Amino acid sequence: MGNPVVHFEVIGKDLPALQRFFQQAFGWQIEPSSGANGVDYMLIHPKVPGGIDGGIGGPVDGYGGHATFYVGVPDVEESLAAIERLGGRRMMGPDKVPGGPTIGLFTDPEDHVIGLVQIDNAK
User: Is the residue at 123 inside a domain?
Assistant: First the structure.
């Protein structure tokens, strides 16, 4: 059985502008959250059957941002180690989000940013 996509996010330079854009473009409900690593972060709730929640955050010093998805895995550290053996590159993690899950970020062999989130039922 494969691992599910469980979250998406857009990290950029102008959080208020991104928030307005996605809220107006798609009607998403957006609310504040405690960000990881001091990043301003808003939670996205599409509120439709089958939709997944996401986030909008930024800015991060010295980083232009990304749009990515998060895959649910049973162990972020084990997954990041396997990804590195397969030619990917660890960007971050594992990191514990305050009051939330353990996450990580990596780039695939073509430098696409992809996230991992530790979930109990990803086995």
Answer: no
